[in-house]
Amino acid sequence: MKGPAFILSHPQLGENIGAAARAMLNFGLTDLRLVKPRDGWPNRKAEAMAAGADEVLKSVRVFATTEEAVGDLGLVFATTGRDRLMSKRVATPDEAVAELAAELGQRHPCGILFGAERTGLTNEEIILVDAILTVPTNPDFSSLNLAQSVAVVAYEWWKGTHDKPEFKVPAKFRRAKAANKEDLIGFFEHIEAELDRTEFLFPADKRAAMVQNMRNMWQRAGLTYQEVQTLRGMVRALTGGKKRKKKDE
Questions:
Q1: In 3D, which of 6, 40, 31, 8 has the Cα closest to residue 115?
Q2: Coil/strand/helix, residue 34
Q3: Which of 24, 31, 51, 248: CA 20 to 30 A from 187?
Q4: What is the mean pLDDT of residues 187-216?
């Protein structure tokens, strides 16, 4: 794995996709994923702006939803400068690079999520990630263009990892493989379906906020694959799942 995946959610301009691909290859990154690009894919304007970053463009993967795009990833950061009023850890680029490098050092796929040019990331997308990556900028003019944001983060990755000895994983980052987002989303939907059945997520106008709070809570737990499976087994047992027979029965 050469580096984290860069996921562009609902990008609008082909030029920005091409510029992002060029910046990624400048800094040794090749895993570019697109979520429902407005003008479709492939895109001639992206190809022109990429200026020869064919290695990135040829491997681009397109997804219908952000959930699918991050499904195979464990640790995921979201780039945003807006306060989402969520209980999400915020990391500087240096901190994020150290964590991402540690994950990759353990062969755990990870990624960075970027929002659309006009609207950025939705709250539903922010719920999917583990932490926020915020680039320090002028507080009076902090907004970065999508391609600029990709370039800055890609440079930080290169600066933090290039021409360095093989990354030694600090003890605080050493862990069993985290559950990927597909596993977590399956667990979220499982427990929420049972809570709907028992009318816990009530009243209806409060459901979205309750689900958001619960998903953020589970994300902060940093669950492993085995822990997710254990939790799903617990939910099944508590909701009338098959009971194990005793030996003397």
A1: 8
A2: strand
A3: 31
A4: 93
Q: How many CA atoms lie within 13 A of 53 on its CB side?
A: 27
Give domain 5-173's CATH architecture. Answer: 3-Layer(aba) Sandwich (3.40)
Residues shown for the chain: 249
Looking at per-residue pLDDT, the higher value among 243 and 176 belongs to: 176
CA-closest candidate to residue 63, choices 193, 223, 182? 182
Structural contact between residues 76 and 129, judged by C-beta atoms closer than 8 angstroms: yes
Write out the DSSP string of 123-180.
HHHHHHSSEEE-----TTS----HHHHHHHHHHHHHHHHTT-PSPPPPGGG--SPBPP
pLDDT-derived band at 86 (thresholds 50, 70, 90) equals: confident
Is residue 244 pLDDT above 60, yes or no?
no
